[in-house]
Every structure is written in C-alpha cells, then in structure tokens.
Amino acid sequence: MKVLVVGAGTMGSGIAQVSAMSGYDTVVVDVSKEFLDRGRERIMDSLQRLSKRGVDPSTVLSKLTFSTEMKDGSGAEVAIEVVPEKLEIKLDVFKRMESILSSGSLLATNTSSIPISEIASGIERKQMLVGLHFFNPPPLMMLVEVIPSKFTESDAMERALKFVKSLGKVPVRLAYEVPGFVSNRVFMRILQEACREVEAGEASVEEVDSSARAIGLPMGIFELADYTGIDVIVDIWNILKQRGMVDVPCSMYSKKVSTGELGVKSGRGFYSYPAPGKFVKPKLNSQPKVPPARLLSLAVNEAAWLISNGVVRSSDIDTVMKLGFNFPKGLVEMAREIGLREIENQLLQLSSKYKAYSPVSNFTSILS
C-alpha cells in the first residue's frame, strides 16, 4: 500500500517515518526542498536512535520518497494532511490531493484543533475524510485519536481504524466530533484549574506543579505548558472558546505570549531553560499545596461530560491520558481512587462563581 503525507514538519516527518517503518511505500510532499531536507534529517536522526532497538534505518529509508510535487503521491490509498493549523491552507492541500487520488482513497487530517467537519465542508470527497490525531513524537507515542466529521461514512472510519492499528498504534475512536476531541478538552481543563489556583491566590506556580508531581503526574501543569508551547495552548484555548466550550477566566497564559515567553521553545516561560529549545526539568522547592480532588476536578468533570454525551467511554479517556499524556493511571481511575464525592464537592464549591465547574448531572454514577 502507498501512503501520502503532506507536510514534512515535526509531525509530518514523524508520521511518515511510522508509515515507512510499518512497511508502506510513503511519499512525503512539501512546498520546498529545504523543508523536505529538514524532514529527512529528523527522520534519519530518529532512526539512528531507534537502531539501538533493532530498527534498520536503510530499510525504512528505502520506503520513503521526498518530493515537492503532489502528483508523486498519485495512487496512494491513504493520504494524510499535516500542514499548519490554517483552514485555508488545509483546504488547498485537500483540493490538490483530490486532483491526483482515486475516489476511494482515504483522506485524513492531523489537525488538533480545527473541527473535521469544517475541513470536510470545503472539499468534494467529504465522506472519505477522517481526523487522525497523532501525538508528538509519532514514532514513540502510541495514541491516535480517530474522529469522524458529520459527513464521514462508516466504511471510512473502519478503514482508518484498521490503518492506525497496522501502524502499531492504539486508536481511540470518538462516536462523533466535539471541538478539541478528548485530549485537548481534558488538557485545557487541567490548565484552566491550574490558572484559577494561581490567579485566585490559592497557590503559586511551583505549589501547583509540586501538587501535580505528588500525585504521580510526569510533569507539573505549568511545566507541561512550557513544554507544549504556551502560544500553542492559547491558540487551542481560543478555538475551543470560540466553538462553545464553557470558559474559565484566565489571563496568565496570554500575558506570557504577549511578552514572548513561550516556554521551552523561547528559553523562558513559567520557568527558565538553558537555551531556546533545550528542556531541563525544573527543580521545585515548594511543597504540594493543592488537594488532588481540586487539582483534577475540572478535568474529571469534562470527562464526565464526554461520557454522558456518548462521545467516548471512560476507558477511552483513561487510554488518552495514559498514552497521550503519560499519566501513571487513567484520569477516571485516579478520580475513583481520590473519591468521586470529594471531587464533586470541590466542583460544587466553585460552581457558584464559574459555570464550567457545575458538576455534570449524575456525576458520580457516570464515573463509578
């Protein structure tokens, strides 16, 4: 089978590598030789590291073709768009894909924030489009969210799930599309509660992060914001807010962006780093101050909303948080251990001030 990947950036080159490692003839297309060369270098560096695990770089590279011509992807059975998060750019890519692919080719977008249906509305073969949300870095991260648009045919979804499994990845299938999918909806809620804690004067940045590490999370919440890119977080946050997700007032993330403190990528965010792009885990001197039930309350409430609305099952949310965010346990599993009643009480204490904290109806029974 032939796979077309459009976009040779960090995510695109990673997805192309995974495809080639799975034995598929893979064509990587981008607008310039410079972008392609960078993508090839990323893949070669990754394969060199993976060679210690028994991966043969030469075999993988033999499956890869790099081109500035979309026509070289002709005959691909699966085509994945991995270009910047601008709707007009994505629509242009899909229109060019459609011009060289057969009507039966599966079309996929790796968007993390733009609704799949908005992209599908602008193309001809909308019934063949699915969302395949890979996590960074694709060669190492096992999770892929599989999202239908309101136009997607069931056969396209089944083919997408089969393809993801053939890559050795674990798919989480959404029954229908919601803004932010599962990962970003829950992630934003964790970031929002962290912000509320600090802006309300209940805890410092370090105290919040110490609390997160104390319950076994691999990173503090503000540490994770730095690692992800604070500008990326603000963009996704705004997209979710614009599309109806009930918001929590917060200004500290946007203030960081306005001063150019974007996190690891700029060398400074909530913490300082040795150089732009060089991550070193911050040393925290503060003691944990935030109760686990409050720290995770808003995220757990979002999980309850997703389950009660039939988007995914509780086990799917646990899979997303374990494989997508390296949680030691699933979010719902952690909530049960902490105590659902205790979490609900935390939500009730805050719900009079913040609408987003109003517990989902039948909160404890949904999560039990």
Could you characterize the architecture of this molecule?
Helix 7 packs antiparallel against helix 13 (297-308). The mean pLDDT is 96. This protein starts with a strand and ends with a helix. It has helices at residues 10-21, 33-50, 57-61, 87-100, 116-120, 154-166, 183-199, 205-214, 221-228, 230-242, 252-258, 292-295, 297-308, 314-325, 331-338, 340-351, 363-367; strands at residues 2-6, 25-29, 64-67, 78-81, 106-109, 129-134, 143-148, 170-173. With 368 residues, it is of the alpha/beta class. The chain is globular and about 60 Å long.
How would you briefly describe this protein structure?
This protein is of the alpha/beta class.
CATH class of the largest domain: Mainly Alpha
Helix content range? 40-55%
Helix-strand pattern, N to C? EHEHHEEHEHEEHEHHHHHHHHHHH
Give the overall average pLDDT. 96
Shape, per Cα inertia axes:
globular
- Structural class from helices and strands? alpha/beta
Strands across the major sheet, in which order?
3-2-1-4-5-6-7-8
List the total number of helices: 17
> What Rg do the Cα atoms give?
21 Å
Query: Would you count the extended β strands for me?
Result: 8
The CATH topology of the largest domain is N-(1-d-carboxylethyl)-l-norvaline Dehydrogenase, domain 2
